[in-house]
Amino acid sequence: MIARALGAGAAIILLGAAGVWVITAPEPLPAAMIEGPPGDAQRGAAIFAAAGCAACHIAPEAEIDDAPVLSGGRAFASPFGTFHAPNISPSPQGVGDWSDAEIMDAVMRGVAPSGAHYYPALPYTAYALVEPQDMRDLIAHLRTLPPSEAESLPHELPFPFSIRRMVGIWKRLNMSEDWTLEGEISPQATRGRYIAEALAHCGECHTPRGPLGGLDRSRWLAGAENPSGDGRIPNITPAGLDWSEEDIAYYLESGFTPDFDTAGGEMALVVEEMGRLTAEDRAAVAAYLKSVPPVE
């Protein structure tokens, strides 16, 4: 009887482990999303700016210019440990040897060429909403940028967060292909939603998170604690941001607020990127922010 019970217990454990292995498996993009026309590097420059790639992947203290060096190295503190932005320049140390499909899997699904999960410090939950052709254009532009031989730094994460396989469970809880702002909105606000929710991933900083680090979409853009522990990221719903659409668009272009203050910290880099967009796209983001439900 004891041997039979032990055997049954072992079988249950094995079945449970097999189930966890299955539900935590990485899910690359379907082939239909990867296949398509070659990317347009010139068009990809605007996608690259809207996506804020340089703001995270330039070296510490470096400045964003027309051809930024995406050598990585910036540290991002969080309650789960410290993440280091990797080298994503077109070099062997970066992503120069990767195929377009491998880059798309990484950015839109959080899946490495090796098949491992990337941590959601890479905002692939937002980039999952990006149009595949826009991503191909972004990649084409990325390949025109200067290469860097800098080696990517390892993340500093304690156990159990160091177990990448468990990110698969996090993805099942937090990955979605639905827009947060749904319902009837203007064509201008619809364009702004695409930029703000997908490309610029505004919610990643401005939305509070739950205990496991997933976004609390019921309080979308309502402000959040700074992951570094330094201050608070502001509420940019209409309940917390009473600027006009013109004020918002001008801030995204220049960094100047209606109160004659200027953008600082991480937001200064975001404004540098947003300032490279067209006036129409900045106005669209402003229209979107005015369409978001107010959250006190």
Which properties best describe this structure?
296 residues, mainly alpha, Cytochrome Bc1 Complex, Chain D, domain 2, two-stranded antiparallel ribbon, two-stranded antiparallel sheet, globular, Cyt_c-like_dom, Mono/diheme cytochrome c family protein, iron
Explained architecture:
There is one protein chain. The chain has 296 residues and is mostly helical. It is 42% helix and 4% strand. It starts with a helix and ends in a 5-residue tail after the last helix. The chain has two domains: 27-174, Orthogonal Bundle (Cytochrome Bc1 Complex, Chain D, domain 2), CATH 1.10.760; 187-291, Cytochrome Bc1 Complex, Chain D, domain 2 (Orthogonal Bundle), CATH 1.10.760. It is globular. The protein has a two-stranded antiparallel sheet. A two-stranded antiparallel ribbon has the order 3-4.
